[in-house]
Write a structure and sequence with these properties.
- The complex is a heterotrimer of chains A (about 600), B (about 425) and C (about 325).
- Chain A is built from 19 helices and 26 strands.
- Chain A has a 7-stranded mixed sheet with strand order 10-11-12-1-13-24-14, covered by helices on one side. A 5-stranded mixed sheet of chain A has the order 20-19-21-16-22, with helices on one face. Chain A has a 4-stranded antiparallel sheet with strand order 5-6-8-7.
- The mean pLDDT of chain B is about 85.
- Chain C is mainly alpha-helical and about 325 residues long.
- Chain C has a domain at about 105-330: MetI-like fold (Orthogonal Bundle).
- In chain C, helix 7 crosses helix 8.
- Chains in contact: A-B, A-C, B-C.
- The interface between A and B is large, with 43 and 33 residues.
Amino acid sequence: MKHTRKILSLLLALMLACSLTIVSAGAETVELPRNETLYFAGQQWGSINGWNPLSDDMNNAMGITQDAGGARTIMYETLYMYNMLDGSLTPLIADGDFVWNDAHTEITVKIKPAAKWSDGTPITAQDVAYTFETNVKLGNAKGNGYKPYVESVTAVDDSTVLIKAMLTDAGVAVNPLQLVCFLEECYVVQKAWIQTLEARCSNDTTAMKNDAAEDVVWSGPYTKYFANDQKVVLIRDDNYWGQDASMWGSLPVPKYIAHVIYADNAAGQSALKAGEVDVCQEFIANVQDLWLKDGLPISTYLNEAPYGICVNMPTAWFNLDIPVLQNASVRKAIAMAVDYDAINQNAMTGQSPTFADVPRSCMNPTAGEQATFDHDAVKDLQWVGNDIEGAKALLEAAGIVDSDGDGWREFNGEKITLNSCCPNGWTDWMAAMEIVAAAGKSIGIEITTEFPEWSVYQTIVTATTQTDYDIFMMWTDSATPAQPWGRIRMMMSSEFIGVEGNWSGNWGHYSNARIDEIIKAIPTTTDATELKNLYTEAVQIYLTDVPSFSLMYRPNKFHAVNESVWTNFPDSTDGRNIPPTDCTDGYGIAALYALELVNP
Amino acid sequence: MKNTLKQVFHSPKFLVGFCIFTSILLMMIIYPLVNPGNPLEMIGLGTFAEPGTYVSLYDSVGTKTSTLKLDGADVKRIDQVLSGEDRVNMLNWFTADSIDISGLDITDTDTLLAMWKANFDPSIRLQGMTKAMRNYYIRLNDNINAAASADILTVSEIDASTGETVEKAEINKTDYVNVGDVANVKTLPLGTDNFGRDTLKELVSACGTSIRIGLIAGTVATFIGLLLGLLGGYLGGFVDDIVMFFTNIFTVIPSFVLLILISYSISQDQRGANTIAIVIGFTSWVWTARSVRSQVISLRNRDHVNLSRLSGHSLMRIILTDILPYIASYVVMAFILQISSGILAEAQLSLLGLGPKTTDVPTLGLMMNWAMLYSAHLNGSWWAYFPVILTIAFISFSLNLMNTGLDQVFNPTLRD
Amino acid sequence: MKGYRKYFGKKILWLVITFIAALLLNFTLPRMMPGDPVAAMTAKQAQGLSEASAVKAIYDNYAREFGTNKPITQQFFTYVVNLMHGDMGTSFSQYPRKVSNIIGNAIGWTLALQFPAIIIGWLIGNLLGALAAYIRKGFDKVLMPITLFLSSIPAFGMAVMLLVVFAINLKVAPISGGYGFDMLPNFSWNFVVSVIQHYQLPFWSIVLVSIGGQAVGMRSMSIYELNADYVKYARFLGIKDRRVVGYVFRNAMLPQVTGLALSIGTMVGGALVAEIIFSYPGLGTTIYQGITMADYPLISGTTLIITVMVLIATFVLDIIYGFIDPRVKAAQFD
């Protein structure tokens, strides 16, 4: 007995001591002052493993996100900042607007004289050119992604960058839209630092990409301060060049930007409710309950549903490798029967404009994209859903009937049985697929749901051909300067058929020669009327052939803010035109300069 | 046998446990009769409707009304939109807008509202006021306006042919309908879950599945354990060595870890409730095997077994008639415990996202998992998870009670 | 001493054998999962990438790096060799981070949470069980059903209820994490307080659940011993009640030590799930991440570590048991 107790107490003491030392190993002594720190949730999942802007694997969403919808510019910076609200580009490192040459094959960008690296050296055109070269050399996502469109990036002089487009045989740019994306998506990294890295890694590309870049030189207003498995903290660089009058004219308001790494959405949301998070980039079911029911000082960009700016459309694709789905009437009938309002309510809890508000097309609900096509010309092709009778009539007309009286329709004498699939655990998508299945039942087509693991799902969906999934969900592009062209290409371009590991689009393998022509023509068309005609025709083809159908509109970034500590976040009614991209992405970063304390 | 049963049912613990378990079973049988239908049907749009009785607003418009003049109806109506906190906030607005509020009594609703209407302007942006607060005042103002609107509310419909609005009904503040007269009234004792399913209906069905999982897991585990224990214990020698080898290994490797690994290696679309049950059974036979073996070893050289063996009875017969009856009570107890640990194991697996696939059947673990995924515990939707926890607790409580009761019957030294 | 050496030798042998078995299971089972995790990693990079050949290049690069393009036997060989160097492979979901690094950061939290919790739960449970057996009457009648009910609540259920009551409704405890959201780890008093505050709820949810099971077992054992002949004899001899009770409980404790050894695996499993509810930065949360991200190096690393922890705990308990139970010595001569 005595022995036991001794040993046990010893063990206990050991464990406690152990735990404390482990927990407190290697850190600086700081408590972040609440009124100098802006807390985020929903951007960083898992711990930071490096700060290398040339790598694709740094799991550093808080510091590195080169996204065409607006790159995150709190530590590294791009030439321009994208604003998804109006599609405009605001110069950041660049000085003034970029200039196309007359042939529309080259872009000239000036560099701001004030722009400096964190080590005090000026940002030059050589940095821009060298970053592009390195990206291509390393074969990282940005290098591979832009290689087909950008022929070269060169420094004319220290402050002038010349970006040449890749040309087709006919001598026109392959895709001028992608050149514009390049300006707002790709970071500029210091040439001198890249050379240091090259020397350290002996020019080995894998080693360069896996380098944690602790010594990196940055140009943005914040830099790394602390990171472990539980959180990441960035600290303001008070020497930031952007306080120059030619840029922001001041420093961003919060001294620290902190992101606790939450285990899941629920943890992040409870922290938002508790006021431990100021800006939350997470889908919050029934977000309005936070202020209506709980009376919390939480708000969203829009005061009423859909609460956020929806810029993309999670879409259900028909597998055109399945014979019955090669029949356009079957496709359209299913799409017409689906109860989209139910999807909106269940999967998005009403945080999506309905298809009655924004009739379906290939465009997202933003005013810019909606203006690209002729609404009247496609009116008769659009449907709002839950139109059981219309769908049945369409099937009857196509001769797809229930001839043996078992309640299910047949195609070529066989009962139509389809499945609708999405990855397991993607709750909003799963709810949507259940509703699609229910729609099938209501028009006499048996649809069952299947929810494989994501790791399985994505290998099948991206395969060159597959017959496992009949109706399946994938995403479509958000707002970028290349939209809505990019999304139309994603939805219908036959160039993706037969591609191994196809992550680019047209997962249902739809093929139409005319749409391929349109997709080819749009990027190089400059005449406004002609462009509108092309877009309208694309939408007409999409709505007639129904190779896929959008299930809802969804924001790219969710944006809910708690005003317990900070206020003056972007708001739809404030006239400042700052997009709700979490105060970090694209022109959304302007929000950081306007924040105010609730209790100064 | 009869005597044993009688003894068993005289044990108060067993009896209480048995009653709880039976009432859960009865509930499972009776409730679907009262409330038939598919438990996975999504009846509600949206997530987590609160428990309560839902009256169709549409139907109640056409329903026969009675006039009831109730004292304080107006006050209640106003109070519904104007809490004490709201009144204080109204004062704060006046102060922030530098309006003189001396002598204003916030319990004096009429004066307060009059003053509010005279002074509130949604377009004014007060210094230092957050957006959330600004929105709050606009909402409050809207609510006040709605509550204070005309005495008669008009319901109109749009004529499909002409597109004109046609008045259909008028609703007075004193109009009441009898709930019994409304065509569609639905009581959801436990509200709906994240998919808009009737939680109680789902719970009852899930309870059945989970008990089935427990039973299958228990049967598999008991069967394997019994078989290995009997073989090892009775035959001894090399067979026993092999049995002990595996038993020892699986005693120490946590069954939970094994469960995770095995379930993980089965893809989701093949993970049905029964598959999961068998996997659980497959990882929890060790205890039974160990104790059966040790009991068999002590029985092996008893006189009646030796006698039987000398009489040339077959191995099968010796085991069935001379050994099994002596360890039967123990096996039954172990079986009961395994049912409850099987139910628990399913719940834990599901919480990790490794449970049976969602769309087939509801299980207690899946309900819990979905409630957690939709953060029911954080947004106050207690009905989505608390009844589930309680059900699991009651099932295993009843089984544990039965087990303890049996223990006392079969081990007289433990009797009270 | 020879008896002991034999006893320990046997235990160590079993430790090694079980470890090898665990290793095999850990390697094989996660790799049987359908689907291609390398493709999942590629997916992360390939979003928005419109060039097919680029995607293929990324894929091949990863496949080479993880060795998934090699035969499975060769993969196992590499796995074991690497493991000897303390390298459990590279995480898929947090590439290029090492699994051992992720686990190293989480294991301290789990150890510090679970061992004290399980041991304290065991101690309190045994104490209550013994009291119930000794006092009987009202105490027993009230206490037993309560502890039995407590032990019937699953650990995650207890965790959720504690979370809702204390963290969300009463707001006396933090909701998630291992320390304050506004803190950086350091040696200050404030930080220690914050850690302890975050420790409370997960700790008690494990303790409360484990009390029940232990108390029930201890009560049975104690009653059994109290009714044993030697007790009657001792009482008959007029030995002081206090002393007799001391013997009784000591004898009753012994099986409880073995009981702990046998049930520690189950307890750890329950506690891991409880960790997830509190987003406690331990192994439970790590394994959950691994599962949701289909990160099998992480899953197999974590399960291996948990197995090893349980193996060691069981081994230590066996050793303790060997020391405190005189009968073990006798058993050596079988």
